[in-house]
Amino acid sequence: MTATTVSSRGETLAFPPGFVWGAATAAYQIEGGVREGGRGPSVWDTFSHTPGRTADGHTGDVACDHYRRHADDVRLMAELGLRAYRFSVAWPRIQPDGSGPVNAAGLDFYERLVDELLAADITPYATLYHWDLPQALEDRGGWTDRDTAYRFADYARAVHDRLGDRVGTWMTVNEPWVAAVLGYGIGVHAPGRASAAEAFRASHHLLLAHGLSARVLREGGAREIALTLNLAPVLTPGRLNDPELTLSEQDAEAVDRVDCLINRQFLDPTLRGEYPAPVLAIMDRHGGLGHIRDGDLKTINQPVDLLGINYYTPCVVRSEPGEPANAAYPGTEDILFSGAHAPTTAMGWAIVPTGLTQVLTRLSRDYPEVGLLVTENGAAFDDVVTGDRVHDTDRTAFFEGHLRAAHAAIEAGADLRGFLVWSLLDNFEWAEGYHKRFGIVHVDFETQRRLPKDSALWYREVIRHNGLHRERARRPTLEAVAARAGVSRSTVSRVINGEGTVSDEFRAIVMNAVNELGYVPNSAARSLVTRRTDSIALVVSDPPTVAGADDPAFSAVLRSVTRELEEAGKRVTLMLADSADGRLRVERYAASGYVDGVVLVSSHGADPLPPALARTGVPVVLLGRPGAAAHVPYADVDDAGGAAAAVAHLLARGRRRIAAISGPPDSTASQARLGGYREGLRDTGHRSIIAIGDLTLASGADAMHQLLRDDPALDAVFVAGDPMAIGALRVLIRSGRRVPEDVAIVGFGDIPAASHTVPALTTVCTPGVEQARTAARLLLRHLDGGPASSVILPTELVIREST
Ligand code: FCB
């Protein structure tokens, strides 16, 4: 490891001299112009044009129109003070069919881009493969075909021949794990195939492509050669908070197995010339090892100068006997991927900056020869344009946290040479389309207007100072707004609270200061003026499928909350917050003082609204249970206890192979029911068998089909929702099973239809109406100065003929 000293000049947390600051993008995500300049089709053109593959059918046809606007984009980078820019070359622009003659117009495009960058004093970093495989090669087997690796080396030579005199740093393949596993293993990325064996073949050939192209680049005289990997520390939930925690033998084995799959499967062959033994064993069980030929590992193990690290979030797992393998991680039977209890981005990814310190220090310990560069780090949030600003404080805080984490790694001796944010521009986020915005520059996809977000302006200062302020950036305060506007704090507070006593002129001055500073009012601002509106917002933040809005019980719940509040003399406003806009409207409405409190119907664990509302200082009570990140009082029902009772009942009836159909994993209620099911089986020696549905009748039927295929001998099933249970019951009967003689079934919820099925359904009755009333009463009590407490109501098993 190279010892790098970090100076701590006065107020700044300084990075080493010459530290590289920049941003990254990828061709298909920003270029558009898919039919321009002789470009051939790629797998992502085909995939995104296949109905149902990407969110709302979005494609990269136009994207950020960077193909035509590259000169403006480079000017923008210069204005933001970027010192480096990592872009990717689209293979189908260089070789439209993936092999054979080179298309000069394609090379011309990248040559213009590189020349513009150099003229602006921005160092170009070229990535050769960021997932846009020429479709013609996919038609011949794509990355499952060994020949693709050789074609890639030819292509690398052609690009280097033209640009090698001006581009010093070359990255071969971006994130082979994602390309192989999401593309070939589970099919959520192009080309959309779903086979573990194919994913392992594809990863090996991607590694081979790295080795072959690195050799070609070296022979061509490339100055710096790099490989970019998505790396994640693999942690248990306990280790998240306490990195020193001693793990049980089972947990340690689970962590090691997942680490081998996601990290060492790529680090070890490229940097050590070998596959870790657990990876070979798993590969052997999924398609065999025939695709690994003598000499491959030597080819893959080319000397590299830099390792590019893409870090977003850690991987959190623990040992859980009976858990089926995660499809994205073949060979992970008996391991539960639990996710982290931490605030999340709009992607639902847990924000854990210390994970970056762990990745970097681990690399410098285990692979000390290679220099390190963060080639991607960033976050999607639901940005809002206010006039000509985007106050993306969450994103700035995200970068600030991760830069501090990177700095800590450097202080611990990691040879980290630079940091590139993902991404320069909002862009086509693969299967998520344009819905997830990762840019530090906002893009209006209708007009193609670029608007640097506050995080970009903040980043420019970081670059200028080659470091951060020692003190963490603070959110603007009420005092700061008052000082900027030249008025008293109470005037600001009155404006924010919508009081009519401030003149229009002062109101305009205050609002101007609020916008300029990106101020978000909190409870301090509100408490200066105590006033009651006698209004309560009843906010539904779940999409109807999660909330079960099709279910008549749901409207009964809304009616009960409303009645309870109205009887206490409150006016109730019903608001929907099932979109980013809706959430923002609710947040603003609450923050502006229009309501005394909020009852929020939410069961989505990653729902950003509970913590956002809590920050406004308005009392909130949740109907449902908050995700781990939000500390909000709630009224819930004992989902876990109900599920455990159902399993105990099945065991008491002599059932031994008890499967479960769970609801969506991102719903807190589903998580609790699944937890109860597992709890019920714990210590019985029976394993858990789980399928997932989305609470609808059809999904229950599908899940039941799957369970019967996976385990034809099962004798009971616990279904975490009555509509799904009814779907499952139909499938059981159609498949010739006698219920309950052959298979017993228990539902959850006790909807009216449950007593009318044949046979009638045993189910867990949840006191929905009582829960609704309780939420309303908790809020009223809190408004009267009482404590902000939570309540969990008991559930009850209703035994009918199906068990
Ligand atoms: C990485 C990809 C990049 C972008 C970010 C969010 O896995 O390399 O293209 O999609 O994730």
From TrEMBL:
* Entries under Pfam families matching the protein: Glyco_hydro_1, LacI, Peripla_BP_3
Instruction: Note the InterPro entries from the entry.
Output: Cro/C1-type_HTH (IPR001387), GH (IPR017853), GH_1_N_CS (IPR033132), Glyco_hydro_1 (IPR001360), Glyco_hydro_1_AS (IPR018120), Glyco_hydro_1_beta-glucosidase (IPR017736), HTH_LacI (IPR000843), LacI/GalR-like_sensor (IPR046335)
User: What CDD domains does UniProt report for this protein, alphabetically?
Assistant: HTH_LacI, PBP1_LacI_sugar_binding-like
Give the top-level enzyme category: hydrolase
The UniProt keywords, alphabetically, are: Carbohydrate metabolism, Cellulose degradation, DNA-binding, Glycosidase, Hydrolase, Polysaccharide degradation, Transcription, Transcription regulation
Domain HTH cro/C1-type, by residue range, is: 477-503
- Domain of life from the UniProt record: Bacteria
* Domain HTH lacI-type residues, every copy: 476-530
> What EC designation does it have?
3.2.1.21
Which residues, by range, are in coiled-coil regions? none
Q: Where are the transmembrane segments?
A: none
* Catalyzed reaction equations: Hydrolysis of terminal, non-reducing beta-D-glucosyl residues with release of beta-D-glucose
**Active site at which residues?**
376 (nucleophile)
Query: Which PANTHER family does this entry report, sorted A to Z?
Result: GLYCOSYL HYDROLASE (PTHR10353), LP05116P (PTHR10353:SF36)
Regarding protein family, the annotation reads: Belongs to the glycosyl hydrolase 1 family.
For this entry, the protein name equals: Beta-glucosidase
Which species is this UniProt entry from?
A: Streptosporangium longisporum
